[in-house]
Specification:
The chain has helices at about 1-15, 35, 40-60, 65-100, 145-155, 165-175, 200-210, 230-235, 235-240, 255-260, 270-290, 295-305, 315-325, 395, and strands at about 25, 30, 105-115, 125-135, 140, 145, 220-225, 240, 250, 310-315, 340-345, 355-370, 375-385, 405-415, 420-425, 425-430, 430-435, 440-450, 455-465, 470-475, 485-495, 500-505, 510-515. The protein has about 525 residues and is α+β, with helices and mostly antiparallel strands. It has a seven-stranded mixed beta sheet with strand order 16-15-19-13-12-21-22, with no helix packed on it. Helix 1 runs antiparallel to helix 3 (about 40-60) and helix 3 (about 40-60) runs antiparallel to helix 4.
């Protein structure tokens, strides 16, 4: 193994020397597609050397090796396997990038800017948008515009078509202003303000792609959604931005200012201007100069992708598979893989109080491996924290007739185990039992006065899917203004009568836990 690894490392150094990533950046807003294609061969050589090491590890195994040596071989094998998987994903990107960037024909992408100050399932209210075009590696963005302009065109049009997919998305959200195949004649085709209600990025992007042309836009090859927190992190690459109000924004203060501080300047409802300024300035700086290196981009945006603050969708299935492989699809859990608990929030008051909304969730579950059943409880704790300083009406008022400072949130809990009941603060509450993306969804509206700390409890009981390895649990934390931790405590009763326990926590994005079923003696 040592001889093989030593030889492989010598070759890998040569491979990496030929891996000229910086050559990809050809100039202002331009990617050199030939330089991208030239990365494929050194990447193939790199992968070959790693697989050579993996073969050597496998060949070195023997029944007489002591446990400590076997354990070290297991660790090395896993490390190499992880690197091979990353390398395969990188190869997929290298091979697909020219096409995505317009090598064969110009590409058009819808860019959505979201603000979690008014929370939505995907992250935030969609207030601004732009088009990105890519033609033979040259990337350009048109004017950042208000989504209300699209809504106005849609309202004034004679468009009679409907949104025809995805079916489960329409079944759950059509009541919020979207016309599907079964809608009554005359139903509005869509409501842009509610289009980001679902946490399922792929389904939401499909709806946006259908809604955009009748709103005055063009057919798009994909959708990219980014929230204010992710935009603020780009300032680490571009440098600070000075707004028209004289405020200098950098990575330390931009997110808080755009989520709440901007509203303290005055009480105008026309608050999208500052976000427009910052979004325009950031993108102009990115595309007006030499694009950042892939490594710098990954360092800055990688955590945003993991948290679901930067998500993407491609209209072509093969390209969508690439987005999924690199985690750009929003990391929404796969309903076919074990047990899942996810929470999502939608502001239903029409204010910007979600900057002061704090939440956390927990899942306590007992799993019986012999019967593939589970019984548990999901708790979602909310806090409508009173603002520490006076806030303008635009933040504090609402559109549903509640007193000033009140918030109202549509809370949704996604599970693989069916729900048997839902309470708010220990009292039975009206709730909806629906399905979406292969999950059971339990939803209820929660109204909160300033300082309220309501607790939603969802009880679960039913079958749970066990994988070949055992019980797998995935938790998903939503991209809210502040971190929403989701934790779990698992007690698993094994077929042999023993009990295995495990814990898991996710502060952002998805996290998984596997409790194996022991092999029979």
């Amino acid at each position: 193994v040592s001889r093989s690894a030593s030889a492989a490392m010598t070759s890998i150094v040569v491979d990496l020397g030929a891996f000229d990533v910086d050559a990809v950046m050809a100039g202002p807003g331009t990617v050199d597609l030939e330089a991208v294609a030239a990365l494929e061969q050194p990447m193939l050589d790199f992968q070959h050397e790693l697989r050579t090491v993996a073969t050597s590890v496998d060949d070195a195994r023997a029944p007489w090796l002591v446990d400590r040596v076997t354990k070290r071989l297991d660790e090395l094998e896993q490390t190499v396997a992880d690197q091979v998987e990353r390398g395969d994903a990188a190869l997929d990107v290298i091979r697909a990038a020219p096409t995505l960037l317009g090598a064969d024909e110009p590409r058009t992408y819808f860019l959505a800017f979201m603000t979690p100050a008014e929370v939505r399932g995907l992250g935030g209210f969609l207030g601004l948008y732009a088009e990105i075009t890519a033609d033979d590696g040259r990337i350009e963005m048109n004017q950042v515009s208000r989504v209300e302009d699209l809504a106005r065109v849609l309202d004034e049009s004679d468009e009679t078509s409907v949104i025809d997919r995805p079916t489960d998305w329409l079944n759950r959200y059509s009541r919020f202003g979207f016309a599907g195949p079964s809608s009554e004649p005359g139903t509005t085709l869509g409501t842009w303000g509610n289009v980001t209600m679902s946490p399922n990025a792929e389904a939401t992007a499909e709806v946006i792609a259908q809604l955009y042309p009748p709103s005055g836009g063009r057919d798009v090859d994909g959708v990219i959604a980014v929230d204010i927190v992710a935009v603020s992190q780009l300032l680490d690459i571009t440098g600070p931005v000075v707004t028209s109000t004289g405020v200098t924004l950098d990575t330390d203060n931009a997110a808080d200012f755009l989520l709440n501080g901007q509203y303290e300047i005055d009480d105008r409802p026309d608050r999208a201007d500052l976000l427009q300024e910052v979004a325009r300035a950031v993108v102009d700086d990115l595309l007006g100069g030499t694009l950042p290196s892939p490594q710098d981009t990954i360092d800055v945006l990688g955590p945003m992708v993991e948290q679901g603050r930067l998500v993407g969708w491609a209209a072509r299935p093969d390209e969508q598979s690439l987005f999924e492989n690199v985690g750009l699809d929003g990391a929404w859990p796969d309903a076919a893989e074990g047990d899942v608990v996810a929470v999502a929030f939608n502001n239903s008051a029409g204010n910007k109080l979600d900057y002061f909304l704090y939440a956390r969730a927990s899942y306590d579950v007992v799993v019986d491996a012999a019967t593939s059943s589970a019984s548990g409880t999901v708790l979602v704790e909310l806090e409508n924290r009173p603002p520490p300083t006076p806030q303008p009406d635009y933040v504090m008022e609402n559109l549903v007739g509640l007193p000033r400072g009140y918030n109202q949130t549509w809370v949704s809990v996604y599970t693989r185990v069916p729900a048997t009941g839902l309470t708010v603060d220990g009292q039975a509450a009206p709730w909806d039992a629906e399905t979406e993306a292969g999950f059971f969804v339990s939803s209820t509206f929660v109204t909160m006065a300033p300082g309220d700390l309501p607790v939603i409890e969802v009880t679960l009981d039913g079958n749970v899917e066990l994988t070949d390895e055992g019980y797998q649990l995935t938790l998903w934390s939503p991209p809210t203004a502040h971190v929403t931790p989701v934790a779990a405590t698992v007690e698993m009763r094994q077929p042999d009568g023993s009990t295995t326990r495990g814990t898991l926590e996710s502060d952002s994005g998805a996290a998984s836990l596997l409790i194996p079923i022991p092999e029979p003696d």
